[in-house]
């Protein structure tokens, strides 16, 4: 939906590559120490949980499924793609849904690292409009909308791949 909206709005994208001119770089984007700290910290923290969920999903599929694929003469990659992963997805989607929502929630910790920037933005909002509570509610609303949309998309996918019992 977002990509279609940008396409309909005729949005133009360009990449500003950094170039070394003089004694410094010009152009591009800066990666601040605060942003890199949050990015690296959340990535390392979340990677362990996601890896454990996927490992548990692979181990939840019985060894007999691998043996059945070998008996059919399938190579290891096809066994994994055609037999193991479809069965594994039914096991890993619910905990992955929770983990992705936790990533969004844990990203609020970025406010602790970037508190001076957040405080500067809030001071600007207060000095220009005297509406501090509304600014906080906008931030809360964005997180709520992001969490609810992520949860509903993952729940839809979970219902789609669930085994239908009669």
In short:
75% of the residues lie in helices and 4% in strands.
Describe this structure in words.
The protein is mainly α and 166 residues long. The protein has a single domain (31-161), classed as MetI-like fold (Orthogonal Bundle). Helix content is 75%, strand content 4%. The protein contains seven helices and two strands, in the order H-E-E-H-H-H-H-H-H. The protein has helices at residues 2-8, 33-60, 63-71, 76-106, 110-113, 115-129, 132-161; strands at residues 19-21, 24-26. The protein has a two-stranded antiparallel sheet with strand order 1-2. Helix 4 runs antiparallel to helix 7 (132-161). It is elongated, with a radius of gyration of 23 Å. The chain starts with a helix and ends in a 5-residue tail after the last helix. The mean pLDDT is 83.
Identify the CATH architecture. Orthogonal Bundle
Query: Structural class of the secondary structure composition?
Result: mainly alpha
CATH superfamily: MetI-like
The main sheet comes to: 2 strands, antiparallel
Q: What count of structural domains?
A: 1
Rg (C-alpha, Å): 23 Å
- Mean pLDDT, all residues: 83
Distance between the termini: 35 Å
Helix segment tally: 7
Shape: elongated
Say how many strands there are.
2
Q: What proportion strand? A: under 5%
Instruction: Give the CATH level 1 class.
Output: Mainly Alpha
CATH fold name, please? MetI-like fold
The H-and-E topology, N to C, reads as: HEEHHHHHH
Uncertain runs are: none
Lateral strand order in the biggest sheet: 1-2
Percentage of residues in helical conformation: over 70%
């Amino acid at each position: 939906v977002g990509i279609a909206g940008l396409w309909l709005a005729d949005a133009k994208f360009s990449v500003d590559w950094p170039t070394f001119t003089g004694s410094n770089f010009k152009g591009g984007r800066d990666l601040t120490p605060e942003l890199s700290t949050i990015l690296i910290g959340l990535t390392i923290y979340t990677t362990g949980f996601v890896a454990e969920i996927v490992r548990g999903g692979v181990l939840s599929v019985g060894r007999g499924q691998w043996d059945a694929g070998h008996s059919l003469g399938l190579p290891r990659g096809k066994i994994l793609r055609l037999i193991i992963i479809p069965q594994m997805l039914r096991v890993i989607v619910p905990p992955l849904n929770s983990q992705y929502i936790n990533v969004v929630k844990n990203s609020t910790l970025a406010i602790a690292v970037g508190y001076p920037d957040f405080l500067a933005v809030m001071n600007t909002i207060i000095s220009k409009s005297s509406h501090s509570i509304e600014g906080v509610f906008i931030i809360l609303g964005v997180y709520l909308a992001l969490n609810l949309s992520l949860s509903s998309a993952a729940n839809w996918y979970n219902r789609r791949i669930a085994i239908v019992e009669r």
